[in-house]
Amino acid sequence: MPSFHKMIAEEVIGGVSVKKHYFLLTRDVQASQRAIALIAEMIHTASLVHDDVIDDASSRRGKHTVNKIWGEKKAVLAGDFILSVASIALARIGNTTVISILTQVIEDLVRGEFLQLGSKENENERFAHYLEKTFKKTASLIANSCKAVSVLGCPDPVVHEIAYQYGKNVGIAFQLIDDVLDFTSSSDQMGKPTSADLKLGLATGPVLFACQQFPEMNAMIMRRFSLPGDVDRARQYVLQSDGVQQTTYLAQRYCHEAIREISKLRPSPERDALIQLSETVLTRDK
């Protein structure tokens, strides 16, 4: 099985992301709390492997995807394997509350993927649908991981809710900026093709805001940008509108809410680091 082990190792080692750092900022973390960070990263990595299969993606973070190198069948099994290792590690923590919290993440990931496959005809419902999908596919992992770490370190339910709300708001802001970068960054910066969401038929924040200025985009959204020229036209509409700026502004609001939540905790170097880390979400370029 050397090729299988190589495939898993390359994906996990290459998959270390900013998300893990939300759970590793305290100087004296318990072993179980550190395990949450690793479990969260494994769940995240497994979801990316499966996403790349669904999207038939060929690159991520500037490298070939697992499915590109090894094929779809092995990629699906690789994602399943990473999830199984994460599940074993989670069970070993031995805290039923934490197990319940983190298994919710896996359910949310699947539900979020189903939400992404659908769309709303009603314009007023589209943004709510988009934000719900964004929470389930991205923010749930950060929110529930932050909550799990707080449960292991503190018995106060108030602190647990603060941790959850902090992670939720940072997570949504993170994805909003990701959706902005799909229009403003180059492929080299992103490590994957730009306008990728449009090519997948997805209407993200910048598109939905642009649609308010260019109603003719409604038809393109409903047909998921499937006609020749739809992707290029939609991209031009977004760049001509204030969709990027509005989405960035919305991300700022979520980051400010995250800072407001975490500021409820007593002052400490760790709290300040979490505030600083949330601010970096808004300034990242990849």
TrEMBL record:
Gene3D superfamilies: Farnesyl Diphosphate Synthase. Pathway: Cofactor biosynthesis; ubiquinone biosynthesis. It comes from the Eukaryota. Its EC number is 2.5.1.91. Keywords: Isoprene biosynthesis, Lipid metabolism, Magnesium, Metal-binding, Mitochondrion, Transferase, Ubiquinone biosynthesis. GO terms for biological process: isoprenoid biosynthetic process; ubiquinone biosynthetic process. It catalyses: 6 isopentenyl diphosphate + (2E,6E)-farnesyl diphosphate = all-trans-nonaprenyl diphosphate + 6 diphosphate; 7 isopentenyl diphosphate + (2E,6E)-farnesyl diphosphate = all-trans-decaprenyl diphosphate + 7 diphosphate. Its cofactor is Mg(2+). The keyword Transit peptide does not apply. GO terms for cellular component: heterotetrameric polyprenyl diphosphate synthase complex. GO terms for molecular function: all-trans-decaprenyl-diphosphate synthase activity; metal ion binding. Belongs to the FPP/GGPP synthase family. Heterotetrameric enzyme that catalyzes the condensation of farnesyl diphosphate (FPP), which acts as a primer, and isopentenyl diphosphate (IPP) to produce prenyl diphosphates of varying chain lengths and participates in the determination of the side chain of ubiquinone. Supplies nona and decaprenyl diphosphate, the precursors for the side chain of the isoprenoid quinones ubiquinone-9 (Q9)and ubiquinone-10 (Q10) respectively. The enzyme adds isopentenyl diphosphate molecules sequentially to farnesyl diphosphate with trans stereochemistry. PANTHER family: ALL TRANS-POLYPRENYL-DIPHOSPHATE SYNTHASE PDSS1, GERANYLGERANYL PYROPHOSPHATE SYNTHASE. Heterotetramer composed of 2 PDSS1/DPS1 and 2 PDSS2/DLP1 subunits. This is All trans-polyprenyl-diphosphate synthase PDSS1. It comes from Phyllostomus discolor.
